[in-house]
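=== RUN LOG ===
request id: a7f3
mode: sequence -> structure
chains: 1
length: 532
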Amino acid sequence: MKLTFVGAAHEVTGSCHYLEACDKHILIDYGMEQGKDLFENIDLPIEPSRIDYVFLTHAHIDHSGLLPLLAKNGFSGSIYATEATADLAGIMLRDSAHIQMFEAEWRNRKAKRSKDIPLFTPLYDMADADNAISCFMPVPYDKQVNVCEGIDIRFTDVGHLLGSSAVEVWLTEGEVTKKIVFSGDVGNMRQPLLRDPQKVKEADYVLIESTYGDRLHATVEVDYVKELAEVLDTTFRRGGNVVIPSFAVGRTQEMLYFIRQIKEMNMLPDFPGFKVYMDSPLAVEATEVFHKNERSCFDEEAMGFVERGINPIDFPGLRFAITPDESKDINFIDEPKVIISASGMCDAGRIRHHLKHNLWRPESTILFVGYQSVGTLGRALVEGAEKVKLFGEEIDVKAEIRTLTGLSGHADMNGLLDWISGFEKKPELVFVVHGEDTVTDKFAETLKTEKGLNAYAPYSGTVYDLLTNEFVNKAEGIRKAKAEKHTGNPVFDRLWAAGQRLVSIIRKNEHMANKDLAKFADQIDALSDKWG
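=== RESULT ===
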């Protein structure tokens, strides 16, 4: 009965944990890394074809995005998730596959013009996504499900995203039962549309995220509708556009909820008919999934609208851009408007085209409404970048850069402390994951000092025995070499990547026989002498 930490260890994305129990092999999440990748992650400890189950906390790509790769490499087991998560993952994984295939096509067009660039193979394709989607086993909230002999699970609403959950896992081997709880991403309190996070009462072990484990959101109650209305009014009076980089699933629907209220209350009397363009096919599909799952996921206020026959995320003036031509046409509409487009961190997608058309305009506003990971374009803009490069062109940042303060799908430090206080008996050990490098350690210390909990922030490769209550291996964090920036020369980038791979191989062979180490060193020295 062992737990191995694979991803989102001292990092915010790429969530993945491996559980070995009852002769079964289980992954809890298998997410894609996004933004800056600081640490080396271990490979999956077992071949994908031998994995029996995946327990998925929610559909965000940093938790689900590698499931098609798992299927591509031989996985054919069952993926357990809530009903809404299964619905959202169905569209998000296909969208991710589309992005992988599009990027491969774009890179290979360039490769054909240069014989020095090898052809690029996508991480996975649409068939792989469909194979992964076919493995989903939807489960209602709060229902304890027997997965197999010795393993039971239950999904508890944590209010982060439609369908998001903490996963409670009961493991029984012989006469011993252990319960481990994976928090997934814990939601913020009093979010629009979704219910507040529900607490879990008991566990032997807990994995808790720490995205905002070292900070607090706004200490005063923020009137998001009023603040958003002020941004819209100010920008429209300048004759500019309000461009909102937004995650297609979750945050986009919240913004629609706020804008509907602005229009209903006539908070912009000088611009009563302003248009809102939702430029994301994924967001359009996701909005339909929200409607489908409103009764199982919406909070009391949102359900009040539904019961009165009001769609809480629709209003006059809402326009949808589905095709690429419809997306391009938005920037030729000569009137102030709101453009909501993905991706939320500006690292891909149609939002980059809207930034190219608006960043240089002092009359426009770029309004950030979500977390920006280190290394993303969104993070650079929030931190005051004066110039950015888009599509090979350097653009001066003249637009006003704003952040809707405190709006977050993640609980802050106090919210995380409140959630973990729900355990009526102290867990034997709390593992702190899914946070930036120093944040995980800080939050582990906070759990010790403020809650008296035994807490530890593991690195990738750490293994813990749940039966004997001891570490099998306490891995050290292996930092990736800096300077992962693209030079603009793809051949040099390929050489650089080969160098990083060599460094990784050297580290992994630390305990090789000295005779072989010496031979390896001689080969590297000879190579260095040749090219040095």
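=== NOTES ===
The chain is about 35% helix and 20% strand.
Residues 2-216+409-473 form a domain with the Metallo-beta-lactamase; Chain A fold (CATH 3.60.15.10).
=== END ===
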